[in-house]
Amino acid sequence: MASSEEIQFLILTTLDKQGSIENTDSLRSAVGSPIHYLSVIGVLNSLASKDMVAYTTIEKDHYNLTEEGNEIADSGSHEAKVFNAVHPKDGIAIAELAKQLGAAAKIGQGKAFKNKWIKKDGDKLVREVESIVDQTQLDALEVRRTGTHSNPATLKDLQSRKHVEKVKLISYNVTKGPKFSLTIEKQATDLTAEMLADGSWKTQTFKKYNFAGNPPEGGHLHPLMKVREEFRKIFFELGFEEMPTNKYVESSFWNFDALFQPQQHPARDAHDTFFLLDPATSSNFPDMDYVNRVKEVHSHGGYGSIGYGYDWKIEEAEKLLLRTHTTSVSSNMLYRLAQETKANGGVFKPAKFFSIDRVYRNETVDATHLAEFHQVEGVIADKNLTLGDLIGFMKVFFEKMGVPNIKFKPAFNPYTEPSMEIFSWHPGLEKWVELGNSGMFRPEMLEAMGLDPDVRVIAWGLGLERPTMIKYGLDNIRELLGHKVDLDMIQSNPACRLDKKMGKELVGKDAVDA
Ligand code: PHE
């Protein structure tokens, strides 16, 4: 086989001599053999990318003999074999013919009868003519020689008898390109600092980008992450700072106790919370004074509260768990805010925090619930904030999400007072659906941390899965997470705009029925 250097040389010198190559079929290697089109196309593409040549593809039907066709071309048709087996004088016994020719006897006999070459004589076959012309063999030989047959009907017949099969022959018509030359200039693939420094970039030719072909298979953001990006954008636009949420294992202290959630609260039951077995506990507390203030406010009250009046135990606060809400991160951050205020000589700086990450609950899994999901949480700390600020801010926030109509319903959280669930009117379902939960953190929580009594913190939380399922029209949480996820769904879905309708988002009926 000719190498691609040889083929390239052949193409360039032929073009130089003849001006064009009408058909690359005419190219012959140094030893005179034809050159396969697959080797030609590689060279042509490379030369064309440098504008040295231009080419068009020529497609031609070509007919090849099949295995049976080749056998006929080499040793004659079945009917000729039968004729030849019949002795000119004595004929041949039918049983003997089958023995000599095998399967060919059957096929050949019929044809030979039809051609009136032989006839039956008792249990023998005898010749009817002295000699024959084996036209079938001649036809096969013509196809072998020319790649086709001069008579289209014969060609069709040969095809239907599976002696011949059609293939497409590809060749090329080649002309000189604007940058035709006998030598190939080495093209640079990179613009380097040296080229810029020595000025050689001015004369250097560069390899063209090839944008043809398949788009590269890159990564694709999961729909949940697309919606998360939208939420992050909204928070950043509103001046929020992202909280570090890389602590999935948390102590009961930050997840519950710091939030003034009593130790007998049902949420602390193993039915609702995943506790760790190994290590089961951590006594890595920030400072024992703060821990003791938490103990005090739970047991006996303080900061205007009567507390819960029970015996608070540190062992309970030491239990490690998979965080049940991202409010564990918020409590940690608010404590740090109190520490910073103290370090700052008591000068309080307002803060706006948000987080979007995974939380875990030991729940029964169904079409809309998994044991792990994502929460979106926002926290605003400033002096003298009121419930009116929370309501007003929620309107701004949800409007940015594309939800203009929200209503509030009084609710209960151990760590907020007052607390409000947030509902929005779903036009597709024609009902109010719950979007999230919100409230003002209790003084029992904030003042124990060391924040001044006039520092108020409003906060809210919502799930990420529900808006994602609504946006992407998914009915079942298993279409979004887990082994049944359709990768195509992840790759083909568009980025999400929370404030823009995506067409199919009213499909996900169950998604909002949670
Ligand atoms: N932590 C609450 C939940 O898990 C949400 C919430 C956050 C409520 C902040 C009030 C304030 O549902």
TrEMBL record:
Instruction: Provide the E.C. number(s) assigned to this enzyme.
Output: 6.1.1.20
Question: What biological-process GO terms show up in the record?
Answer: phenylalanyl-tRNA aminoacylation
Q: Where is the Aminoacyl-transfer RNA synthetases class-II family profile domain?
A: 226-494
The cofactors it requires, by name, are: Mg(2+)
What InterPro entries does the record tag this protein with? aa-tRNA-synth_II (IPR006195), aa-tRNA-synth_II/BPL/LPL (IPR045864), Phe-tRNA-synth_IIc_asu (IPR004529), Phenylalanyl-tRNA_Synthase (IPR002319), PheRS_DBD3 (IPR040725)
**One MF term from GO for this chain?**
tRNA binding
Q: What is this protein called?
A: Phenylalanine--tRNA ligase alpha subunit
